[in-house]
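Two quick folds needed for the group meeting slides. Do the first one here.
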Amino acid sequence: MRHAIPLSLLLLATPALAGEGKWTPQQVLEQGPAWVKAQGFGLPLDKLWDAKAGGGLLANAVQLPGCSGSFVSADGLLITNHHCVAGILQEHSTPQANLTVDGYLARTRADEKKAGAYRIQVPRAFRDVSAEVRAAVPAGADDSARFSAVETKQKALVAACEKQPATRCQFAEFDGGLFFTLTEFEEIVDVRLVYAPPLGVGNYGGEVDNWSWPRHTGDFSLLRAYKDGQPYQPRHFFPVSTRGVREGDAVAVLGYPGRTYRAWIADEMAERQERWFPAVRDLYGEWIAILESSGKTSAEVAIAVADDLRGLENTHKNALGQLAGLGRGRILDKQRADEERVQAWAALRAEGQQALAAWEGLRTLSAEKLRTWDRDFLLDLVARGPRALRWPAQLARRAHEAVKPDAEREPGYMERDLPRLRDRVTRDQKRYAETADRRWLHSWLKRALALPADQRIAAVDAAFGAATTDAALEAEIGRLYAASRVFDLATRKAMFEETPDALRARKDPLIDMGLALDAERRALKARRDRTAGATLRLRPTWRMAVIAEAGRPVAPDANSSLRVSFGRVRGYSPREAVVMTPHTTLAGAVAKHTGQDPFELPERVRAAFVARRFGRWTDPASGQVPVAFLADCDTTGGNSGSPTIDGEGRLVGVNFDRVWENVANDFGYNPEVARNVNADARYLLWLLEEVEGADDLVRELVAAPR
């Protein structure tokens, strides 16, 4: 694995394109103070990130479950998106007090609602471990051995890092092995809900407006972190700006973007366009309809399915946007043209032959993936589908891994992971509704039973192969639900601690199917591990050629590690004769109000607007309360809840979306339409002060830093 390449070589002398790039803290340092100043940030570079001190303002971007957030007060007050606390709202909801719909405000700190299982990770050190990882790979290792060596080193690095108390460490691989990092986090487990607006504010516009502009959504919430029973005292926090931003102002988005695919070759991108996104579009569309109709049967079922439904809807619409954007932007054609240019460049250089061979190797891996694509897709969904699949599968995997020495277990099932897994066992119970789950399982099984002969799932055929009609399948599903104890929380907690033999001894039909499915999923993982080992061998060689040919800094793909994207507040033109301005206001939200979901603005919000009770939050340019704004920062999933700061390090908004034309920027950045959507912090301040009367919270939010 000879891909030693210092970060400085990834950041060549040519200036980077301003909006494009999810930069690591080290890369920001490499590009230097002049580059940062050119982005509109007057802060000293070492205030943004000081490698020796292990942080800076960038470290105030904290990691939440699936989201990002940031501290906004000296007493541990934290801001993120409304949809990032959906699980906490669901946890505390009842048919009589549905916080998911009604929202919540803690009038005092004693009223703050503790999250049963919610963790915040605050970064405090960040280092390049590339040399250590490469040295761990034996000379001449085959692809399986290469993957195993890297994974073993990853576990060792994380284990050594986590010997410190209250510490969580994250290993990250960049662009298939171009370089590797280890981030050390302080982990906070006592998290309490302070404020979440009603659904008619926090999800105003729903799926109609999702991934689009103009937006009028107050997608923000406030949490408070505690340590040893007292409010957590962060090293850094962002004071909330009372001035806001104007068109052209410099901003930056800090957070933990999940995954992008710009380092992929065209054949790999084609699999997403031709197989993955169409399959998600079709199947998730069916699952959404199931949960929506089930939720209408009772208030209890509606609460149970709310979190799953919102996640499915978001992913479904994302798939539609990806397909539209890939086609409209001709992204695959552009990628192929870029690859041809790099190939021509490499062909003129002696060392370029390795890059050309690596590209061919990646094409071969992509073709192999298609042979069992439909089967693999359904097996992947076991972990994200109905509880009748995901719970037994999780129990089976936990039992299988538990009998191994900890260092040999699969990441995600090691001792360090067990508190989270146990939390999930309890937390997930409130997301289960039998009527919805049975229909959900029926949908998955029908597709599994329709697989071609060379892609059959043996576990499904064994349990359901005799069910040749919908009625017979439904009857068999009903029998399994009636016979299984996996849906009882106390029983499932006990199962979580059992060995595979103990689980088998229960003779529980769903557990038996879970064990059989897990065997097939583990075989799939072993195959993918070999592919990952081959990718570690091939992609870095190809990427080094791509970067060298580009002659400019290239930010690596998103991988849930800490990144910063610089940009400006800008509108855009999605098509001829249409110009989108970069700000929306409360007047626009009121104009959209229909009185019916998803455009049902709470009455007290509308009353404050009619009375022109704007207080001190009127924007001078519009004369209205600001709601949201656009910028050209480079974001993706995982950036939900990311702080958007101005050039002086003040919080001006919270990132929560991208525009429809920009959904496919996961595959390529287009400066003409690359716009992220931010909830304006002044909308939050207005709601708290003029609608909720939460003056103490407002004072805490706008306090000057210590």
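Then this one, please, same format:
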Amino acid sequence: MAQIKSPTLFFVTSPRTPFKMRPEIALLTNEFAGEEWKGNTELQAAFMRRLATLPEFEGAISQKDPALSARDRITRGPKALGLVALDQIALTPAGENFLDDALADEALLRQLLKFQLPSPFHKANARVDATFWVKPYLEILRLVSVLGRLAFDELALFGMQLTDWHRFDEIVEDVRRFRIEKEKHKGQYKKFLYETKRRVIMAAFAKEIATGRTRTRESSDATLDNFVKTKAHNLRDYADACLRYFRATGLVTISNPGRTISIIESRREEVAFILANIPRDPVFVDDEKRYCEYLYDAALPMLMTDDKTVLDDKAVKLRAVATKQEAKAASASELKKKIKQHLEVQKRAIIESQITELKSFSKYDDVVDVFGGIMARDVYDPPLALEWNTWRAMTMLDGGTIAANLNFDDAGNPLSTAPGNAADIVCNYGDFIVTVEVTLMSGNKQYDAEGEPVARHLGDIKAKTGKEAYCLFVAPTINDSSISHFYMLHQTKVKHYGGKSVIIPLTLKRFMGMLAQSKNCGYIPAPDKVRAFCEYSRTAAASADDETEWYSAISRKADNWLSENNAS
């Protein structure tokens, strides 16, 4: 049993994206079924080592204690959400639906709505000065619904204090007062936010502060300033985790560059049903057997679409089927699949409309503003914002078919970043390809994390398409080791990467300059301009004395990339 050690809410933070649990759950329940998990460090370590061999695997294993890494993967998300049973390892009925592509988002929603504090899995530590009596995801959804929209800062500061649903009205009033005060501090929001964070955290953690327990696990610094800073970071971390899991259900979306959470218009009726019908009180708090029966049940809690008549009406309303008779003749599972397929088509139409807008440069100022927010770290989920906004910029930059390896929600907003085994963006120009890789990492971490994967992704594209392919590598700053590595790959044939690799490192500022040139040139640059720029990098690498000379040459060229003179 895990202990609740903080007077604020917490959410599943590992893994960050809920659907990353699917291959891990499948591996555990397929290859280790029937085994005992608890205390079995040998099995846990074996599972972790096996997991690391999967192509979907991301992250790192503790070489010193792989069993600890395994517990982090399994007991936080899969166990807490009732997707696996661990007394004897088995897939639960809820877990079975979660592994079904057609039912995964619905299964996740049911499990989030059942997650509660306290439970037989989570009890409050006696030292915690807070009452826990809440279904956190349910009440956060209610908060978004009642307020109409919820800013990310509001979720972190006030939503994370909703430890008892009886405090709901109090939290709503806190948010409304915050908004009134925010209006009074226009132009001074950062200072106002800092002062509000400090006041809120000192009130929430008053007992810890009063008893001198201000040393955090993350640091030996026991000063009050460091304590407040750490707790503020933790609140944002949990708010982020809450939002990521909720967005995966398809109920909510987040505005871009990612500051405001709202309910997706087409799901409002379903949300209203949930809030009106699901009991707010935790259940079976002291009865693990009955709690598990409830948690593992794939049919609980009941959703609006469990009513076949309602599902029929929804399918007709969304035009997923042609007639009411066709809806009635189909099974519930068939209708859910048809609705999901229809929403995918609808989403694609929204994205195509966005592409049309982008190619007209009508969103140019917005794209520039988002890049500015990313560099200032003033957006929600900067890595996601960078990948999405770079896709928008490449769509605007020139001709070609530009595909982001992103997941989008039903409102056409970015949902999650590309999986680690594929390029971030793929630009198809007919007879050649350009991949684009983006990162916010700097220093040696940039080279360590990106150097090999970037080249591998480029090699994979070459092998898959049989076409010439190049890569743009975009980051706020470019590390010297990355420059050296990409220069070397221009010169060296590596079979695994499809021969020599033309990978061009560009600072984000320089990439934005290339976009500005494209807007101001008076025409849409043709693919041959893109290819000429990439080929210039190859030529410059062949003639340069070293990587520094090469990088200077391609940087100068990027600053004037539409020039007819490739030797600029």
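Slide caption for protein two: The longest strand covers residues 468-475.
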